[in-house]
Amino acid sequence: MATVPTINDIETAAKRIGSYVHRTPVLTSRAINRMCDAALYFKCENFQRVGAFKIRGATNAVFSLRDDEACTGVATHSSGNHAAALALAARWKGIHAHVVMPDNAPRVKIDAVRGYGAEIVFCEPTLEAREATLAEVVAKTGATVIHPYNDLRVIAGQGTATLELISDVADLEAILAPVGGGGLLSGTAIAAAALSPRTRVFGCEPEGADDARRSFESGSWVPSVSPDTIADGLLTSLGDLTFPIILRHVAGIITVDDEGIAHAMRLVWERMKIVIEPSAAVPLAALMKHRSAVRGRRVGILLSGGNVELDRLPWVVESFAKAED
Amino acid sequence: MATVPTINDIETAAKRIGSYVHRTPVLTSRAINRMCDAALYFKCENFQRVGAFKIRGATNAVFSLRDDEACTGVATHSSGNHAAALALAARWKGIHAHVVMPDNAPRVKIDAVRGYGAEIVFCEPTLEAREATLAEVVAKTGATVIHPYNDLRVIAGQGTATLELISDVADLEAILAPVGGGGLLSGTAIAAAALSPRTRVFGCEPEGADDARRSFESGSWVPSVSPDTIADGLLTSLGDLTFPIILRHVAGIITVDDEGIAHAMRLVWERMKIVIEPSAAVPLAALMKHRSAVRGRRVGILLSGGNVELDRLPWVVESFAKAED
After folding, report:
1. Interface probe with A: pick from B263, B273, B311, B322, most Cβ of A within 10 Å
2. ∠ at Cα B296 (B294, B297), nearest 5°?
């Protein structure tokens, strides 16, 4: 079995999921273009079903299952967008979804997963507890585990966003995607390499969770240890499927600090009037940090999602903290 | 001279401003439709140039000036979206704009007006000071005053949003617009009465600034006295041009409290992933308050703007206040 999805897999995924997920719009901002002296094209996966690109990979995985696999349902551990995505994809397919979530997961995410009809199994907020709990669930139910990123069907599904972006916007000189586990970045890189080989793909990562940069620069896998960043979708380490794809097809990994991420997030809210989550702001933050390198260029940016805890916005916490000084 | 704009004036305005302003999208939300058991069509003027519908009226007014009027520039007093709109419209036309603003106006609005090249004259935050200062500016410069809503050209310009909405969405049973001074509501009512006479138009207003409801119900003009609401775009009283149009063409005025406004605003942010200002949330709040009346109906909602102070969100202040209890 292949360990790298091909452009055919991505095109097949696009057909498979096309009637379920949105073809999201590509937006531009006069004001941000002026600030960056570049032409930026924002692929708005914040408007995607469940509020994030994750529904693409989850739907492709669920609708790729053989009947004998599907009948026992699917399972995953995730505190984030993948959990909601898998829950909804399973509902579309009419099968059970079991989601292992840490008991400190944000209320809004628990509600979303439950709202889509998945069964939630809570565990302690450690990777060990999550994996042990997931193993128990699988042993009991026979469910098929759909990993949030280290899965060929998921990677192919995530690549469909870039398929659409490239078809909507010609001659992009670069595409910037956030990188956590690397599902979106590797799908993006495969799609761009096949369809627009002159487009350079960059992964964008918080400094406080820079395992992808360290893995990429050293050429050997480095895990994410005690990650600390407001970009809560990007805490995970690369997988053994995503890392080789990234090494082969990605031009570089750019890191940015949380202040830069919060600034970019706020800029998108203020100027584009759209809600994006911190992880989705990482590519714009990276671009603004290296403004001179993009001057005059056409750049695609994957706005990965829009699921934010509206009570806990980075700049509000900051302004209250300042007021207390 | 006519004291009521006609549908012809609105159609002429649409042609006059068409190459300057955006034709904004109409968005829908599966989740909000489900919650309201209705089909809601949101006209997204938060994506409009300057972040609000106000650019429509201001541009129509500025580009309606005779040459001898235009050469001495335009002036207004406004702390809000009309100020930025008039500044930008004047820049497009290549004429001066003088904007009288209270010295406690939000920084983001001052920056916007200045960024569009207008000259700002600050005054004390009272209506008297604003009007006196504006009179001085006009005496000195000979500028033409463009009132934010009590102006036939402005009313006709605001009506173009509904022209687009009706052309994009057939068979609306109702259209809900926020009402402050009544420019948007009266333009909406004229457009709907002419183009879709079965569509009932409702004005939606904060309880803390309910002069339109009281004027409408009593049939005689009642001023807005000490208005108090988070919907800071809706503090003003109806004008002597807008009130008769509203009396004639509007089906009713619905009021909502600030809690309902904050809830509706948050709902739009969370579910639609778009940023709207409190004033823009008033129609959805009104609809949710009278949910049984809209069951199964097709309703258009004018999301009037997206200019929010992101440091001062109603629900964040609320949650901090609660934490202090």
Report:
1. B273
2. 60
pLDDT digits (tens, 9 = 90+) for A223-242: 999 999 999 999 999 999 99
Q: What is the pLDDT of residues A151-173, one digit of tens each?
A: 999 999 999 999 999 999 999 99
Q: How many beta carbons lie within 10 A of that of residue B256, not counting itself?
A: 27
Residues for chain A: how many in total? Answer: 325
N-terminal to C-terminal alpha carbon distance within chain A:
59
Give the residue-averaged pLDDT of A192-216. Answer: 98
Under-70 pLDDT residues of chain B: 1, 316-325
Which residue among B46, B51, B315 places its CB closest to the CB of A311? Answer: B315
* pLDDT for A318 beyond 60: no
Q: What percent of chain A is modeled with pLDDT above 90?
A: 87
Strands B26-27 and A74-77: unpaired
CB contact under 8 A, A310 and B270: yes
- DSSP codes, A141-189: H-PEE--SSSSHHHHHHHHHHHHHHHHHS---SEEEEE-SSSHHHHHHH
Pairing of strands B200-206, B174-178: parallel
- The fraction of chain A above a pLDDT of 70, given in percent, is 97
Is CATH 3.40.50.1100 correct for A7-46+151-316? Answer: yes
Which token pair is B232?
């800071």
CA distance A194 to A162: 11
Q: What is the mean pLDDT of residues A236-261?
A: 97
Q: For B308, which residue in chain A has the nearest alpha carbon?
A: A270
Does domain B7-52+151-316 match CATH 3.40.50.11060? no
Contact state of B273 with A47 under an 8 Å Cβ cutoff: yes
Q: Check whether A29 has a pLDDT greater than 70.
A: yes
**Residue A145, token pair as written in the block:** 């585990």
In A, which residues are within 8 Å of B319 by CB distance? 311
User: Residue A302: how many CB atoms within 10 A of its CB?
Assistant: 26
Q: Which of A29, A273, A276 to mutate to test the interface with B (most CBs of B within 10 A)?
A: A273
List the structure tokens of A246.
């990234």
Q: What is the distance in angstroms between the Cα of A30 and the nearest Cα belonging to chain B?
A: 10
8 A C-beta contact, residue B101 and residue B121: yes
**pLDDT digits over B83-140, tens only?**
999 999 999 999 999 999 988 887 878 988 999 999 999 999 888 999 999 999 999 9
Structural contact between residues A298 and A268, judged by C-beta atoms closer than 8 angstroms: no
Assess whether the region B7-52+151-316 and the region B55-145 belong to the same CATH fold: yes
Q: Residue A314's closest chain B neighbor by CA?
A: B311
Q: What is the ipTM of this complex?
A: 0.92
Cβ contacts of residue A152 below 8 Å, gap of 6+? A2, A3, A4, A5, A9, A241
Q: Residue A158 and residue A178: Cα distance in Å, rounded?
A: 12
pLDDT of residue A126: 87
* Residue spans per domain, chain B: 7-52+151-316, 55-145
CATH 3.90.1150.10 fits B55-145, yes or no: no
User: Helix (H, G, I), strand (E, B), or coil: what is residue B50?
Assistant: helix
